[in-house]
What we know:
By secondary structure, the protein is of the alpha/beta class. Helix content is 32%, strand content 20%.
Amino acid sequence: MKTTIIRMDNENIDHKALEAAGKVIRSGGLVAFPTETVYGLGGDALNPEASGKIYAAKGRPSDNPLIVHICRVEDLFKVAGDVNEAAVKLAEKYWPGPLTMIFKKKDIVPFKTTGGLDTVAVRMPDNGIAAGFIKASGGFIAAPSANLSGRPSPTDADHVIKDLDGRIDMIIDGGPCIIGLESTIVDMTGSVPMILRPGYITGDMIKAVTGSVEYDPAVISDVPEDIRPKAPGMKYRHYAPKGELVIVRGGRDEVRSYICAGIDEDLKSGRRSAVLSADETKDDYKVAALVISVGARDDEDMIARHLYAALRRCDDENIEAIYSEDFSTPRIGQAIMNRLIKAAGHRIVEV
Ligand code: TXA
Ligand code: MG
């Protein structure tokens, strides 16, 4: 299949091109598009065949439900039932934005889109290109992250092209994503909102609106297969680079000694190694083949934005061993570490 690539930016939206993208969706095709979090791989959420194609293009297990993306708050009520007051308040406060909410699904949403579940995840992205594309497509776009299953989510169109060129009809290149980590997922079907996947919208931000919040125990556990996560996708090996990633936690000197000793061993055995560090500590690891600084310690937005590109760069450079510093920053550190720990297959060393 030939993949058409179209380019635009949020200050200069090409509505004619978005109409063409919408036409692809209406005829059952697939289009990758930018959002503020990561790129999505879109198909018509109300067309079971389109959802089937999404699973096939990604190589994704079909029991892993897709998020339905909308561009008008009122469209929520067409796909979701039992929308409670807390959800309405959250939508008012954080939509459009990086928040996905789960509700009882309405019949119009095919089970193919929800991976067989009777609930549906809904999100309204905060990105002009995404909004225009969803509108041109009829209003309901099913979209997982636009990566091959198991790989880090794409935060730039180049990542999408690398994974999906030739597998989908069209890619809308809207430049790099601002947030860089997938949306917060919160289950609104119980009496208290429950976070299934941490993201830029934190538990505190949700609690400020709804008065209470809970976490799926799997979100806070560092232990693999300890507790079965409620979001089906969170159980799969995820975000993973090809090299073996380990997170090293401790004081700066201890972390430096441990990582440098590891790199020495790798050099002896001919393994190519890399380090993910903060700006402040990037000169601690001069012996590594590659040191990627993801941002200053006090700029957690930057760290989040650069994380997936850093993991992908390790793949591009055929890195076999990756050492990462810990990035437990105050606000979105929980989301950053949730992804990093999964990418590391839960390998964490305390020094
Ligand atoms: O930021 C995002 O959310 C991005 C952009 C493209 O919007 N999308 C995204 O989709 O990350 P995906 O498919 O990579 O991750 C969606 C997660 C999966 O872990 C899936 O299992 C979970 O959401 N999910 C979807 N529907 C669900 C449901 N009804 N109940 C529980 N979990 C659900
Ligand atoms: Mg994904």
